[in-house]
Structure formats: structure tokens, C-alpha cells
Amino acid sequence: MRFNRLSACYLASLLTTGLLLGAALAQPDLGTLPPPRKEKAKPDKSVAKAAPELPSPPPSILDDQVKPIDFASALHLAGVQNPQILLARQRIEEAAALQMLAAAQLLPSINAGGNVDTHTGPLQRSTGVITDLHRGSLYLGLGANAVGAGTVNIPGIVWSGNVSNVLFGRLVARQVVRSREFASVAVRNDVLLRVSRAYLELLRAQGRLALAFQIQREAQNLARVTANFARAGEGRRADAERAATELEFRNADVVQTEGEILIASARLCQLLDLDPSVRLRVIDGHVVPAPIVPNPIPLPELLTIALTQRPELGERRELIRAALLELHAAKVLPFSPNVVLGYSAGDFGGGSDLVARGIAQADGTVLRQSRFGNYAGRQDFDAVVYWTLRNLGVGNLAQIRLARSNVRSEELRQLEVLDRVRAEVASAYAATHARYSQIDTGERAIRSGNNAFVEDLKRTRNNIGLPIEVLDSFRLLARSRYAYLDAIIDYNRAQFELYVALGQPPAGCLARPVPVPPVVTIVPPK
User: Fold this and answer.
1) 369: phi then psi, degrees, rounded to nearest 5
2) For 119-165, how does the pLDDT look when each residue is reduced to its tens digit (9 = 90+)?
3) Which of 12, 70, 195, 280 has the maximum number of C-beta atoms within 10 A of its C-beta?
4) What's this model's pTM, rounded to 2 decimal places?
5) pLDDT tens digits for 458-482?
6) How many domains is the chain partitioned into structurally?
7) Is residue 157 part of a domain?
8) 200: in domain
9) Is residue 278 a contact partner of residue 66, using CB atoms and an 8 Å limit?
10) Full DSSP string of 298-324
């Protein structure tokens, strides 16, 4: 299963995106800064010995076994291999089979076989006379259990059932199939949304790792500058220790971000039913905002689109129809007849020891017959119609009340889903606007933080400013870079959530007409 064409168009930019944030996140050009002031005297050896050693970067916890993946491939694998989506499809198959079974109740059943009946001992006739005899019969054909003078007890072609149950059962089964189809779409949307979130989290982790390496390099340069000044006797050991501590923190950030990559990869592998021992790596090149839902659409229109497109609401509507059909079936059940139709055809024959001993005829002759003879073809047709009032009508009344309660319950569940859908749309709509504003704010923060860091670093290298100032600017710049990355990822995530909250509507629902300027007609005066 895939997103529809509209999502593919809007996600094309994200499918070619990646880990670096462009010029706004670029490392400041430290090579253009003026060199430190030349020393007139040799540095004091005691001071040089007091300068701290720069901490070395920690070893990476990431291995080289990676599997590249892009957004389109992740969605495709989720639609093919995700167990929840496959289970939802099997539920549709189950409901379709039950619908076929309900429709098949309109067709008769066929029974073919035979039976042998023997009796030895006393038998009472209809006149009350007790007779000791040995008799037997044999039947073979459509139906079975043909004994004595009665009809075939198991007809060859038989149809039996209540007319109301058969007709309404077929209609109810059809509504259940439709509800399962809507439920399958809802499960697919939910799983694909979870895959999108997991993919974005992996993209966020890789972006944070790229930033962590960049910030780590800047921290190394800053720690090297302060250590050189400490060795030259123009800086304090405390400033060098503070810069070395900052470098240690940045080294720890690299390790922590690598752990976040492993966690995000494992969660995405779980959704895609892949081996988590092989790390996934997104192959995008830039992280950019990807607007899926056009911003000019106001919230009331988005709510209207969601009410008509959300599969969860479609599922509830079909279940309400099914409950109403069950209520109608319960109401007409006392007036609906139970029908039994049967037809049988086969060979039947037999006899008894009475006819075997012989029967005197009028002319004095004795007629003798075999106990298993006199075979001939026979046909039986039976039609039975009767009405049932269950438990003196109390059972029917209870069944009607139960069906009415089910209808009310389904209506309340629909209201519950309706409130949840509206809340999801409103929340996602607010999140998209808030995250979009944070993107603009974060971009300005990076520019100002980058300028402040370059200026403070220049003052420090010229022995004008204090190293604590450049450390503060460095921390603010690093924080703004992470915030900018999170704002873009959160904006894309909010767009996905809003798009799924709308039920993935077709392109026509999201298309906005181009405003046409009003035409002013000038009417000449009479």
C-alpha cells in the first residue's frame, strides 16, 4: 500500500533530502580570523606544563554494516511486510468469506446416500395389534433415512431457515465487509504514519550526528586556542580547563547521538519487519521543510474534509448500518416464517417375514415375497412452514431491546471517534503553524549566534575578550543549530500527522482555486 499521488508529489522534496542543514548550519570560517599576536618573550616552561591536554575523541559505537533506505522504500516495505497491515487485510478476507456464507443460505443443500433398516421382534400396528415379525428395507439415492411408510427424513435437496434471518443476515454481512475495508485503510494510515515518524526520527538522529561532529570540531579548535594561550602565558589555566570540559561534553554528545541512531534504526526495522542487527541509514541529502497540506486552507475546511475522508468514521457508519439491520431483523422475526423444503428421489424396496411366509389369495393360491425385494423408484417432496414466538414473546422482546442497545452503542462510538478526529486535526493544524514559526526563528537565531561566535572568537584570539564569552556564544550557536534541525523535523512530522488526520484525501479536496479578480461592469448613464 502506498500514499496516494498527492502525497507522492508533496513528498518528492523530502525523498531527496538529507542530513546537512545548508548554509545556515555551516561551520564558521576560522581561517579568515586574524592570527594571534606574536610573542615578544619566550613562554614560561612552568606555565606551559600547566596547560591541560586536549581530550581525544571517543571511539564510535557504529559499525560499518548499514543498509541504505529512502522514504519511498520504507513506505513500500511497510505496506508489504508490516504484520498489522497484513492482519487487517486478512480480516477483510474473513469478512468476505462470512458474507459469502450468508449469501449461500439462499441456496439449498444436497444430500446423497442411502440407508438399511431392519427390525426383529414385536411391533404394534395402528389397530393396536402386537405382531412379531422380521422386516427390512433398503434406500439408495438423493437423501437418506427412509424408514417404513414415512417420508425420507433426510431429504436429498433441502432448504430450511427463517426468511428474516437469511435476508437480513446477508445484508449485515455486507456491511461488516465494508466496515473491515475502512478499518484496513485506517490501520494502513496509522502504520504508515508510524513509519514516517520513525523515519523522521532516524533522519533527525543522523542530522544531529552531523551537527555533533561539526560542533565537536569547533570545540576542538576553541580548546586548542585557549590551551595555546595558556601555554604562551597569556591565558589562564581555568579558561583552558573550561574549554577542555566543553570539548568533553561535545564528545559525549557524539556518543549519545550515535546511540540515538541505533535506537531509531531498530524502531524503524521493527515497523518494516527487518533484521535490527543491520543498521538502516537514510540516503537523503538535505533536511528541508516539506509542506504536504497547503497552508491557505482554513481549519473549518480541514475539519470538513476529515469528516468525509477519515476511514475510522466510515467504519463506524457501516457498523451503525449493520446494527440497524439487526434491529429490523429482530422486529420482523416473529412475523417471519420458518420454511423447510425437501425433495428426494431414489430406489426403495423391502419386505417382511409375513409376506415371506405367504399370503392366501382369493383363488386359493399363496403369494410369497422376499424380505429385500420389490425395488422401485420413489420420489418425495416436503414443504413445511411455521411461525415461532420465542419464549412466549419475551425472548423476541429481549432480542429487540438488545439490538436497539447495540445501535445506540455504535452511535456513541461514532461520536467518540468524531471528537478524536476533530481533536487530531486541530492539534496537527496548530503544530504545523507553530513549527513553521520556529523554523523562521531558528534560522535567525543561527545567523545571530554565528556572528556572535565569530566576533567573540576574534576578540579572544586578539586577547581583547575573555574565553568565557566565546564559550557562551559557542553554546548558544550549538543550541540554535539543534533547535533549527528539530524545528524542521517537527514541522515535517506535523505535516504527516495533519495529512493522516485528514484521512489522506484525494488531490481535489486539497486543491485551492486561483482567486479571480472581480470584474467591474461600468454601465453608461442614460
Assistant:
1) -130, 155
2) 888 877 778 888 887 788 888 999 888 887 788 889 999 999 999 99
3) 280
4) 0.79
5) 887 777 767 778 888 999 999 999 9
6) 1
7) no
8) yes
9) yes
10) -HHHHHHHHHHH-HHHHHHHHHHHHHH
